[in-house]
Structures are given as structure tokens and as C-alpha cells.
């Protein structure tokens, strides 16, 4: 059998060789070299793999033979497929159509991989199911495959082929293709069922003398050429080919279409192959609701009408399209193409004299457009747009300048490589679009395209393009793309394109300048001119066309847009590195003059006298002062401002951030503040200098103020200075007239490096600034605007803020000091007396006091209060809070004692604080001053101020205390910010407890007495006391590690519950009965859904039942294992469970590994909605856990008689396979 197969193959090979000789001209359809020519109407030209240098000279584009029997080219749905049919070879017999067909397509995978897929089962398209392949037989030299192609689920084409590979040199593979019938298959071979149901026609292709050729291409591609004699067989349509869900209306339309086709053809059909009609599919037909007449009609034969001879080739083209779609990786190939181009830029041919001349002329145009007019309304856009008509020219130039969030070389390659798959897809609607590269072996390319202009004839542009790259003194690259009409190209090669005679020739000139800013950002300047060759067109119309063309820069910018903060940080880091490199470098003479003028101007300003502090809580980490120069007490135009702050960064980073005047973040802020304009002027480009213009919005009815400022920086050892002054510029083009008054400002920034704090760089920022706002301005406006200008210091601080790291470092340092040196601290008699008075006050005298419970905002923090009556109308309250903190005693002391930590400062102001300060007297003693409002102003009361001494002391190895006591000091006058000085004392006791799972535990008790002065109602004190004591809750949450502690205990419970066997039958039945009884809704009274939990299906009884009882039910689904959910509810002592329930206290027995029953107690605080008082309720219950079966666990809650409130409930936990568990919970009786 093998010998016979070899003989048959040998004979076929001879026939194929003869066929190849006769069809040699058809092979000219194989794509041409990629670097030479590309068209949007065909595939990106491909050829056998060439040298990787894209600038290597290649042979001219070959043309199709002019032989009389030349192939006819067919269009395909994919622009990347070339196909043809040989004329004169059509035969229309009784049942078949035969054609000599060929197609070539680029496959986006290497030849060997494609060959493997072609002969394997990996080629099937699992997503769309349009292409299906199955290997039916594998022989020593060939394989039998079944292919099925489905077109839009309407038509289907099947092939049964024998593929015989024949490897060739140079990584080329040839495959001989022959169609076979079912009779040629092995007896045990079964042809697959149809993989897709269709509504339409079914074809069968028979291929004779077929050859597939796979060749290696660049960028990991393959050139796939397929030629064969194609015979199209007519096929019966069985009713099973119709989708089961087809509507009767559609079925009727198809029925009419089929009948019409049969009447027109007049062809008697033959029965189709069993490959297409199978008995096994008849079951589907029985499910159809079609009429019998419809079934009889669809069983008739389909034929072809006269003039349908090209159907065969069209079908062949569709198959080519499917091959392309199956292996399509356009983005990957485009990226490889760009990477290859970029890597070979150094290997580009040198510029010719003509190319050098074109680049020089283009750069001259950029210089001439420096004073182009800005387009109105674009001043605050991310892309600046300009228009100008150069002298002696009729067509105007458009220019755009934009910052791009990508590297210069990436943008350059994207603009230069215009024959990528992506661009071809985006421009496929353009009638003419052709690209030829490497003209005459140079780096130039020809670009020809058509342009549709509504109301006019189509235009055709023929352009000559070339490029160059330069390197600045600082090592940054600048790429230039020059564009000129093709008529100016003096080379020998110019390509012509067949075009409609009605098209009019137009011209285009342009230049793209891509300047590298940082490694991943660049500035793109684009200048372009279009002469549409329209006589008498108004300039206004031409400008409209130009403006539309300029919008392409916005699209390109959006294509490369990245996160604004990330880009700003990259720009800042790049400039910071430059500042480091240019440290102590001399400035240019005019820049030295800027610093001299500023230093001379501020040299006479006394920084210690005449300055008024600016008091605002908006700027926490900076201090501000101001001085006025007024014509009278109410009106002025000039003022000095000064601001100082500490920032978390280096001097170079902060100065670089300040110099980036038009960063993404600052531009967004400018738009948010509704300032009319903010832009950087480019008339003088220096690495250490910028000039900017901004128009600031002023309150009505004042005119806006315009500032034009020049900034120069210099870097010295340990610091960076920025001097700024008014720029010598008469007028700025904003695109339209902005009604504003020119204001003037000058000043000096100083960024000085300090010692690190906790591994975080520190820098002192100082700004001294002079303002001449212009005109006579009311004092209140200056008071409002000057702090806003000085807030630039706070903006720098906020941008680089690393509060958590700083606070963590200070906490660790202070805690270590208390732990290691706390007992060695020496205390004075005065300090010991203060400590003793505080202990006597809070721990001795109030030990047996009548404490009343307070409603705590944190149920894990117990709060109490007792009142000391001073007269009949006012009270002095002593509050106390107690909790357990998941941290060491030293960490708790360090965190509380540091009142000036950044977190503490932010919390103070967010909760209504008006100011706070601290003076350190020694390592354990400080003076603390704070002003509070805390909502007192809402009830007509003045803010309160406290001035206290605070001292910490280690009593023994287990206890540390902190004491506070009020006192008076002449440096702290009473009445600051219209406040009333309150007096009081406070006492903290920290007691170490045993660790839990390696986590330190500390019992913290906080007592406070505060006399707010004045007649304060007792209700107000009760309201504000939890707010004051809430500081302990903040501490608990700061160090909370409940999740860590609960998880280790819960993991143990999960293992125990998982190992628990089934309970006995009676226990399980009783548990289910109790659960079902409680689960049933109460018939009397209405039931409403609870709004407390959005993810739970909760219902409660709306009315009040007898004896203060109520009923409720909740159903929740968890994404967790059944045992994990059960363990969560069984873990009665977990902090998370307590937080959810709101219990103020829980008492429970320790879990026994083998006993799933325990008595638990929990206390709840009940608050009256009518202002009354309720006693706490103590619930004592017995909990039991029962495993009913492998998929259900029930937790029962039963009341213990005579033990306070009643709680009767059941929780059911169920799941299949241990996953997707749900819980159903009901509770009855409170």
C-alpha cells in the first residue's frame, strides 16, 4: 500500500511540475519586499526573509505579466489577502464549476509553527467556530484532514484533503494537496459531524493538483501561497442545516429564495455526499416546527445561474480571509516592525545632499512659525495650536506643540512607519494610499494618498518624506521628519498610481520635530501646509480645514496618554538629576543679573520686624507672614509675603517640581480654579530657565491679573535656589483678548537639604515674595489672595508628603527610648508632685465614685462619667475609658505622648481643632497647648483652649503612666482666637498583659477631667465627653490586629469542625425541627425588609409582640467554605464578632476540642429613641453546634432560664462540596 502511494505521489509530482510551468505568471502574485511598497488595498507586501536592516536597497517592485491569460485579481474582505483566477479555465457543467485559483496571505506566525498547526488540530478557531479542522488519518508521508469553513453562520464549505509535505531549502515548505472521497478513507475512520448549524447554502470544494507553499518572512511571519484547480460541487440542503431557533418568517424567506434559485437554474441535481448529510442529524429535524412542504423544498438541489462562474474564486478568497483571521497578530507584528526599525536607526544610509537641503528648509519654516498666531480657545489645552500664512505663499501653515507621554524614538517610529497593519485598518476607507520606502537606496519614502473634500473633486497628494536625528549638548535626541511635494525629489525612482481622471492633484509640505524631554516623554512640534489647489477659496475656509487637520495631534496625544502624576514625577526626576549634575556650575551673565536684582531687592527687607502672621488652619506644615505697603489703611497694591515649611524630599526634587510650571497636575488645578490662561513661553529655551505667563481670576468687579515671570535656578552644595522676576515681554498671544491688568511679582525660593528622618529625605523650603498687584486694591482682597500665592510652599509639602513613614519612625524611636531608658529617667520634685496629684485625683478619690455609663462609639471601648457638682447650674465631669490595645505599653505611650505627629495634627484639625503646639522641656516632660471648637460654636459657645504640662513615667516593669495638668504661663496669653481657657487634668495608665498568638497586649485606662468654664449644660457635657474620650478608640484602631488573632484561632476551629462526625439521628432531627420552626415567618403582624445590610435578605417583625419579644430572620450567601462560616459564628470571643454585634461585653467558656456546647453571656447597651434611659440587657444562652449531614451544619442558641434577657435562635450553614456556602439565620426573643 505504501509503495502504491509513493508511485501515485510521484506521478502527481510530475503533473504538478508541468502545472507550475504553465502557471509561472500566477506566482507573481506573491507579495513583494515589505520595505519597498505597501498599499492599503492589499496585504503588507511580504517576501522570503531578507536582511533585517530595513534600509537595505531592494529590487524594484515587480509587475504582473502582460500575458493574454493573465489572472484576474479579486478583492477580499481582508486587505491583507491577494487572490486571482485564471481566465479561460472556467467550466460550467451539469453539476460543477472548475477554476484555476490562487491566493497569498501573510500568516503572523513562523513557518514551522504554521506548518505544525496546518497538519494538526490546533488550527480550529474555538472563538468564532468559523474554521474547524480535524486530522482523520496520519500516515508516514501524509495526513488526511477534514476542514470546515462557516461564513457568518449562513453558508458552509467543507473539504476532505490529503496533505503531503515536501520540505524545501531556505526554511521553505511545500505541501501537495489532493481531495479525496469517503471511499478513500480507512474503514474505521469517521467523518465529524457539522460543528455549526447554518441557515443558507452548503458547498463542497474538490481540489486537484493543489500546492501550498510556506516561506519565511520578517518579524516572525510566514508567506502562505495556495494554488489549485478548484471544483465547486453543488450540495443538497437538508432541513437539519437550519438552526433550531429559526423563526417561521425567516424560514419562509429562505424557502422562497431556494425555490427561486431552483427555477432559474433548471439543473437536475445529484444526491450529495454522506459527508454533508448524516442520519445522526435527523433527530434535530424532528424537533423542528417547520411544515412538511418546507422540508421537501429544502431537500432539493441547489444549482448556479448563468454568470455565477466567479462563485468558486470568491469562496476560495473567503477561505484565505479565514486563514488570515485565524493567525492574525497585527499588534505583535507592528511592534516587532517598530522595534526592528528603531534598532537599525544607526544603520540608516547617510543623508543625501537633497535630503539635507530638505531638512534644513523644513527647520527654517519652524523658525518662521515661531510667531504664529494662537488659535482662539486653545490656550489652556494640552495641545497648543497656531496658524500663519508665510510671506509670498497663499496657503496657510498650521502648527501644534504638545507634550507626549512616550519616548522620542517611540513617537518618531510611530509617525514614520505608516505602513503598519493598524494604520492600514484605520485608513481602509481611503481610495488611494500607497507607500514606497528606500527610494533609490536612501532613507526617503514616497507617500501617495487621496483626500475626499465634500463639495469638491477628490484630491491626490504625492509626498516625498525623509528624516534626520540630532543630539543636543546634554545628550538628548531630536528627530526631524521633513515632508515635501514629490516634484521636488530629484531621484530616479518615482512611482505612479492609477487614479480616477476626475481627481485633482494637491500638494503638502510639513515638518515634525520630536524633542526628547525625559526617557519616556518628549515634545512634538508639527507644522503642516496643505494646498488643495482650489482657485479663489477664502482664507477662512482654508483655516477651517487646517484647524481640523491639527486635531490629529490631540488623537496622537491621547494614544500615548499615561497617568498624569506618574508623568509629572518622571519629568521632575529628570530635572532633579540635571540639577545634581550641574551643581556649582556658573550661570550665564544675564541669569546672574536676575539673582543680583532679587537679592538687592530683598536685602533691605527686615525679616524680624513688621511681619504679620497669616493665621489659617489650611496649611499645617508651613508658617506664613506678610507685610503691607499701602497708600492708606484700607487700600493697597503692594505686599511682601514669606513662608517656611519642611518637606519630605531632596532640594533637587522639590525645586524640579516647582520649575515644571505646566505639569499635568498643575494644569488641571488651573482649570479647576477657572483661571483664564496658564502657559510656558518658548522664546528662550535653557535647561535652567523658564518663562511663563498666567492670568489669575480676581473677585468681581475687579479685572483679572496677568503675570509674566522669568525663573532661573542654580544648584549649590546642599541647596537649590530659584530667583524669579517680571519678564521683559510686552505682549503674550493667548489666542483672544483677555481683559486683564499686568501685575508684577519677584522673589526667591530656597530649598535646603536637612538630616533624614526615619530614612526619609528632609528639606526646608523658604519663599520670600513681593507682589505689585497693580491699581488700588482693597485690603481684604490682598489678605485673601496673598496666602493663596504663598500656599505654593504648602503645595510642595503636600506633593511629597510621607506622613506614615515619618510617624512610624518617630513612634519606633520614642518607644525604644521608653523601653530601654525609661527607668533611668530622673524626675524633679515638681514633676513628682504633679504625678502624685494626678494619681490622687483619678485613682484614689474617684475609686468608689458613682460612675454612669456613656454610649461609646466603639463597643470595644468602655466609657463612663461622674459629675462633681460646683453649683446648681453647671457641672464638672470626669470621664473614663478602658480598653485593650494590640501593642506594647511602650508603643502606646509613644503614640499618645507625641501630640505633634502628623497623624495627630491632621486628626486635630479634621475634628474641629483650631490650633495646637508643643514645647519639649526634656525627654519626659512637655508643654501642650491646643484650641478646640468641637461644635461648641454651633450652640453659641466660644472655642476652648487648654494649656497643660504632660509627663510620662515608668512605675515598674508592668506599668507606665502619663499625667496632664493645667497651668498658666506668660508666653501663652489667655483669649487666643477669641477662646476661653479651660482647665483640667488627665491620667493614662498602661498595664502589660500576656501576649496572644505572639501579639503584645496592653490594658489602657484613660481618665480626664475638664472644666470648660462658663455655664455648660450637663447634656452638652454628656454629648462631648465621648468625643474627648474617643482618643482611646483611635489608639485601639491604630494598633488593631483583631484579624490576625481571630484568624489563627479560627483556623483551629475549622479543622475541628471539619473532623467532627455526624450527630446522632435524634439530635439532627431536633436541630432541623428547631431551625424550621424559627425560620417560619410570624403570621400575625406585618413583615418588612431590613435596610441595615445591603447583601442580606433580612426580615423583622414590624409590631411589638407580647412581653417585649421580637422576631427576625436573615439569609446571607458567603463565598467561603461551610466550615469556615460555621467557625466564624462559633468563635464567640472574637473581636470581629463583637464589633459586628455591638455587644459591650462578652463572657464565655473556653472551647473544648471535643464538646460543641457552651454557655455564653453578652451585654448590650440599649438606647431609647425617645430620650429615656434603659438598663443594659444581659443575655445568657447555651450554644450548640450540630452537623446534620455532610452539607449542613446548624448552630442552636437557647436561653438559660432565670438569666436575664431571652435569646432563642438557630443558624443554618449549608454548602455543596465545601464551596459556595450559604447561611440562613433566624433569631427570636429579645
From TrEMBL:
Please give the residue ranges the record annotates as the region Disordered. 27-92, 1211-1230
Q: Per UniProt, what is one GO molecular function of this protein?
A: lipid binding
Q: Where is the composition biased (Low complexity)?
A: 30-56, 65-80
InterPro entries per the UniProt record, alphabetical? START-like_dom_sf (IPR023393), START_lipid-bd_dom (IPR002913), START_lipid_transfer (IPR051213)
State any GO CC term: cytoplasm
Start-end of Gly residues biased regions: 1211-1221
Instruction: Show the Gene3D superfamilies listed in the entry.
Output: 3.30.530.20
Where do the START domain residues begin and end?
Answer: 847-1023
| PANTHER family membership | PHOSPHATIDYLCHOLINE TRANSFER PROTEIN, START DOMAIN-CONTAINING PROTEIN
- The protein's name is START domain-containing protein
Amino acid at each position: 500500500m505504501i509503495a502504491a502511494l509513493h508511485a501515485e505521489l510521484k506521478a502527481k509530482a510530475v503533473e504538478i511540475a508541468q502545472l507550475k510551468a504553465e502557471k509561472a505568471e500566477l506566482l507573481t502574485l506573491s507579495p513583494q519586499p515589505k520595505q519597498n511598497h505597501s498599499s492599503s488595498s492589499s496585504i503588507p507586501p511580504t517576501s522570503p526573509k531578507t536582511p533585517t536592516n530595513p534600509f537595505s536597497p531592494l529590487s524594484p517592485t515587480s509587475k504582473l505579466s502582460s500575458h493574454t491569460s493573465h489572472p484576474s485579481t479579486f478583492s477580499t474582505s481582508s486587505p491583507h489577502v491577494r487572490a486571482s483566477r485564471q481566465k479561460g479555465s472556467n467550466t460550467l457543467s451539469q453539476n460543477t464549476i472548475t477554476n484555476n485559483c490562487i491566493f497569498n496571505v501573510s500568516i503572523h506566525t513562523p513557518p514551522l509553527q504554521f506548518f505544525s498547526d496546518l497538519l494538526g488540530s490546533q488550527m480550529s478557531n474555538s472563538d468564532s467556530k468559523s474554521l474547524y479542522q480535524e486530522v482523520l488519518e496520519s500516515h508516514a508521508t501524509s495526513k488526511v484532514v477534514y476542514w470546515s469553513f462557516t461564513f457568518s453562520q449562513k453558508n458552509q464549505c467543507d473539504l476532505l484533503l490529503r496533505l503531503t509535505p515536501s520540505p524545501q531549502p531556505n526554511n521553505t515548505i511545500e505541501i501537495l494537496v489532493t481531495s479525496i472521497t469517503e471511499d478513500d478513507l480507512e474503514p474505521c475512520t469517521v467523518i465529524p459531524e457539522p460543528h455549526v448549524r447554518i441557515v443558507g447554502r452548503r458547498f463542497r470544494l474538490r481540489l486537484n493538483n493543489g500546492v501550498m507553499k510556506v516561506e519565511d518572512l520578517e518579524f516572525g511571519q510566514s508567506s502562505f501561497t495556495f494554488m489549485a484547480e478548484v471544483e465547486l460541487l453543488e450540495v443538497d440542503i437538508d432541513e437539519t442545516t437550519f438552526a433550531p431557533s429559526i423563526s417561521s418568517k425567516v424560514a419562509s424567506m429562505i424557502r422562497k429564495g431556494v425555490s427561486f434559485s431552483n427555477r432559474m437554474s433548471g439543473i437536475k441535481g445529484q444526491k450529495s455526499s454522506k459527508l454533508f448529510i448524516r442520519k445522526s442529524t435527523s433527530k434535530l429535524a424532528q424537533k423542528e416546527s417547520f411544515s412538511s412542504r418546507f422540508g421537501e423544498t429544502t431537500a432539493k438541489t441547489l444549482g448556479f445561474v448563468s454568470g455565477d462562474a466567479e462563485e468558486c474564486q470568491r469562496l476560495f478568497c473567503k477561505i484565505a480571509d479565514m486563514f488570515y483571521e485565524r493567525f492574525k497578530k497585527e499588534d505583535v507584528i507592528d511592534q516587532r516592525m517598530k522595534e526592528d526599525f528603531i534598532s537599525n536607526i544607526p544603520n540608516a544610509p547617510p543623508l543625501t545632499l537633497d535630503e539635507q537641503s530638505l531638512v534644513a528648509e523644513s527647520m527654517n519654516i519652524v523658525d518662521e512659525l515661531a510667531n504664529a498666531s494662537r488659535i482662539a480657545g486653545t490656550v489652556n489645552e494640552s495641545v497648543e495650536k497656531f496658524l500663519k500664512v508665510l510671506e509670498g505663499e497663499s496657503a496657510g501653515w498650521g502648527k501644534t506643540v504638545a507634550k507626549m507621554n512616550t519616548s522620542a524614538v517611540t513617537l518618531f517610529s510611530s509617525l514614520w512607519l505608516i505602513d503598519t497593519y493598524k494604520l492600514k485598518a484605520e485608513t481602509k476607507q481611503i481610495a488611494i494610499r500607497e507607500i514606497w520606502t528606500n527610494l533609490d537606496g536612501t532613507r526617503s519614502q514616497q507617500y501617495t494618498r487621496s483626500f475626499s473634500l465634500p463639495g469638491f473633486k477628490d484630491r491626490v497628494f504625492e509626498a516625498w518624506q525623509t528624516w534626520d536625528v540630532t543630539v543636543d549638548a546634554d545628550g538628548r535626541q531630536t528627530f526631524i521628519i521633513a515632508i515635501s511635494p514629490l516634484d521636488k525629489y530629484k531621484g530616479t525612482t518615482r512611482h505612479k498610481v492609477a487614479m480616477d481622471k476626475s481627481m485633482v492633484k494637491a500638494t503638502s509640505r510639513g515638518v515634525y520635530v520630536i524633542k526628547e524631554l525625559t526617557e519616556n516623554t518628549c515634545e512634538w512640534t508639527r507644522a503642516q501646509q496643505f494646498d488643495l489647489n482650489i482657485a479663489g477659496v477664502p482664507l477662512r475656509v482654508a483655516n477651517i480645514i487646517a484647524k481640523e487637520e491639527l486635531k490629529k495631534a490631540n488623537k496622537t496625544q491621547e494614544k500615548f496618554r499615561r497617568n498624569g502624576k506618574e508623568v509629572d514625577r518622571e519629568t521632575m526626576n529628570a530635572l532633579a538629576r540635571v540639577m545634581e549634575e550641574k551643581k556649582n556650575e556658573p550661570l550665564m551673565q544675564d541669569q546672574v543679573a536676575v539673582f543680583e536684582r532679587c537679592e538687592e531687592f530683598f536685602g533691605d527687607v527686615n525679616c524680624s520686624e513688621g511681619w504679620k502672621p497669616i493665621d489659617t488652619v489650611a496649611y499645617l506644615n508651613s508658617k506664613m507672614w506678610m507685610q503691607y505697603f499701602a497708600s492708606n489703611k484700607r487700600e493697597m497694591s503692594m505686599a511682601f509675603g514669606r513662608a517656611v515649611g519642611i518637606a519630605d524630599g531632596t532640594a533637587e526634587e522639590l525645586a524640579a517640581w516647582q520649575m515644571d510650571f505646566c505639569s499635568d497636575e498643575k494644569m488641571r488645578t488651573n482649570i479647576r480654579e477657572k483661571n483664564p490662561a496658564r502657559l510656558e513661553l518658548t522664546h528662550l529655551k535653557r535647561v535652567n530657565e523658564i518663562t511663563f505667563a498666567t492670568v489669575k481670576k480676581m473677585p468681581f468687579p475687579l479685572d483679572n491679573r496677568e503675570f509674566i515671570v522669568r525663573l532661573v535656578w542654580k544648584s549649590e552644595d546642599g541647596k537649590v535656589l530659584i530667583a524669579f522676576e517680571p519678564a521683559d515681554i510686552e505682549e503674550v498671544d493667548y489666542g483672544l483678548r483677555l481683559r486683564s491688568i499686568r501685575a508684577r511679582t519677584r522673589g526667591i525660593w530656597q530649598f535646603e537639604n536637612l538630616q533624614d528622618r526615619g530614612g526619609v529625605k528632609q528639606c526646608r523650603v523658604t519663599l520670600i515674595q513681593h507682589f505689585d498687584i497693580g491699581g488700588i486694591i482693597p485690603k481684604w482682597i490682598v489678605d485673601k489672595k496673598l496666602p493663596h500665592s504663598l500656599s505654593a510652599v504648602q503645595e510642595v509639602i503636600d506633593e511629597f508628603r510621607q506622613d506614615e513613614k515619618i510617624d512610624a519612625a518617630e513612634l519606633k524611636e520614642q518607644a525604644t527610648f521608653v523601653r530601654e531608658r525609661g527607668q533611668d529617667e530622673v524626675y524633679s520634685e515638681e514633676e513628682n508632685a504633679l504625678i502624685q496629684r494626678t494619681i490622687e485625683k483619678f485613682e484614689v478619690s474617684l475609686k468608689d465614685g458613682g460612675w454612669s455609663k456613656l454610649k461609646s462609639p466603639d463597643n470595644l471601648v468602655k466609657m463612663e462619667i461622674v459629675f462633681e457638682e460646683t453649683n446648681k447650674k453647671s457641672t464638672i465631669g470626669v470621664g473614663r475609658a478602658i480598653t485593650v490595645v494590640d501593642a506594647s505599653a511602650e508603643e502606646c505611650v509613644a503614640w499618645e505622648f507625641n501630640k505633634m505627629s502628623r497623624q495627630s495634627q491632621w486628626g486635630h484639625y479634621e475634628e474641629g481643632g483650631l490650633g495646637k503646639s508643643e514645647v519639649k522641656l526634656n525627654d519626659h516632660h512637655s508643654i501642650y497647648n491646643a484650641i478646640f471648637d468641637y461644635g461648641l460654636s454651633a450652640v453659641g459657645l466660644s472655642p476652648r483652649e487648654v494649656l497643660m504640662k504632660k509627663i510620662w513615667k515608668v512605675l515598674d516593669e508592668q506599668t507606665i503612666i502619663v499625667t496632664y495638668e493645667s497651668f498658666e504661663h506668660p508666653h501663652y496669653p489667655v483669649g487666643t482666637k477669641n477662646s476661653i481657657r479651660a482647665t483640667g487634668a488627665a491620667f493614662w495608665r498602661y498595664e502589660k498583659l500576656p501576649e496572644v498568638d505572639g501579639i503584645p497586649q496592653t490594658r489602657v485606662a484613660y481618665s480626664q477631667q475638664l472644666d470648660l468654664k462658663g455655664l455648660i449644660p450637663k447634656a452638652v457635657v454628656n454629648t462631648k465627653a465621648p468625643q474627648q474620650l474617643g482618643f482611646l478608640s483611635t489608639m485601639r484602631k491604630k494598633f488593631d490586629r483583631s484579624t490576625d488573632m481571630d484568624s489563627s484561632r479560627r483556623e483551629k476551629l475549622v479543622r475541628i469542625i471539619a473532623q467532627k462526625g455526624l450527630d446522632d439521628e435524634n439530635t439532627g432531627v431536633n436541630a432541623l425541627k428547631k431551625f424550621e420552626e424559627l425560620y417560619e415567618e410570624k403570621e400575625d403582624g406585618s413583615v418588612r425588609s431590613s435596610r441595615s445590610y445591603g447583601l442580606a435578605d433580612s426580615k423583622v417583625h414590624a409590631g411589638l409582640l407580647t412581653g417585649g419579644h421580637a422576631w427576625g430572620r436573615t439569609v446571607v450567601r458567603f463565598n467561603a467554605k461551610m466550615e469556615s462560616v460555621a467557625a466564624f459564628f462559633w468563635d464567640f470571643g472574637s473581636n470581629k464578632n463583637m464589633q459586628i454585634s455591638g455587644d459591650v461585653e462578652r463572657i464565655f467558656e473556653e472551647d473544648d476540642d471535643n464538646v460543641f456546647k457552651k454557655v455564653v453571656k453578652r451585654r448590650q447597651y440599649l438606647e431609647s429613641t425617645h430620650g429615656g434611659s434603659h438598663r443594659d440587657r444581659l443575655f445568657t444562652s447555651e450554644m450548640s453546634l450540630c452537623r446534620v449531614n455532610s452539607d449542613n451544619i446548624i448552630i442552636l442558641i437557647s436561653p438559660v432560664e432565670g438569666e436575664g434577657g431571652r435569646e432563642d435562635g438557630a443558624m443554618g450553614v449549608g454548602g455543596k462540596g465545601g464551596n459556595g456556602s450559604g447561611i440562613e439565620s433566624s433569631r427570636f426573643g429579645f
